[in-house]
Amino acid sequence: MFKNLIVYRIAAEWNAGATDIESALDGSRFVPCGPTQQKSLGWVEPRGEPGGALVEVVGGHLLLKLMTEQRVVPGSAVRQRVEEIVAHIEQTTGRKPGKKETRELKEQALHELLPRAFTRQSATRVWLAPQERLLVIDAGSHSKADEITTLLIKALDGLSLTLVQTAMSPAVAMTHWLGTGEEPYAFTIDRECELKSTDEMKSVVRYARHALDTDEVKQHITSGKVPTRVAMTWNGRVSFVLTDSLQLKKIDFLEDVFEDMPEIDKRDKDAVFDSDMAITTGELLQLLPDLIEALGGEQVLGATAAPVTPSAAQESAQASAAAPAIPEATDAPAMEMATSTPPWAD
Fold it and tell me: Which residues pair with 63 in a beta bridge?
């Protein structure tokens, strides 16, 4: 049901129920793009039943679904139309449009082409766990998540959200895990990662279907490259890719998850929906606390977070000989790193 996760904490003073949310979102149901409208956003029924509820409740968890529709006009088509208009102006008036007028002509060309453009739709799920005070968005980018949270905060009176932050940045933690070969409790490191240099070259090294506990990977870290994403598996049940911005991507529920699940009639859409929702919420509500703990615990609101710098990530790699395990989280906002030379650097 979810392929990506961006996780927010809901402020304690907000406690709207499903009925309140349904009422607030009803005026913002999805309407397809008009002939000259480039983009349309709106809420649709999570179960896909026209006229159904906008807020589905399963096991105390709430699910919303935002639909986005865009008219796609190729840039080449806009340029071609602008060239035609410019040529017509030159032929009829003998003058060449300036930069400002050309920009206006681009807007004119786009407006002319929109009614003939194809539309593209995409849906994004939003999951609210009221008891845990979490709001989770199945978005592949923070810009998309920001768009959705803006709509929710505007529609739902009193809603306040903050991105979940951890005491240790994912970049520093991933550097430690790869540099030492030590996996965090309840997790295994899989066979995919991306490392980027912090210099002006911005070099990138990607590994796919490749062992990561190698001297080659450690050498990349020692030379200053910082992990930006690492594939992991939690308890043999859920695999995902962790990014340096604390996103979870490529989420996949493994076979162990389904062993104890009762069989359902695949033709019963409601039963399938409820089962998928139960699996998703049940597994992720166990995974997320373990992941936050592996990253030093959740950063307390109002505390000063330690800045993540390239040197901090490199120091993490250099600390492995003196600090064989990730230090336990403390109340201090920053984590102190040792500076001894790692054994693989000899």
Answer: 56, 127
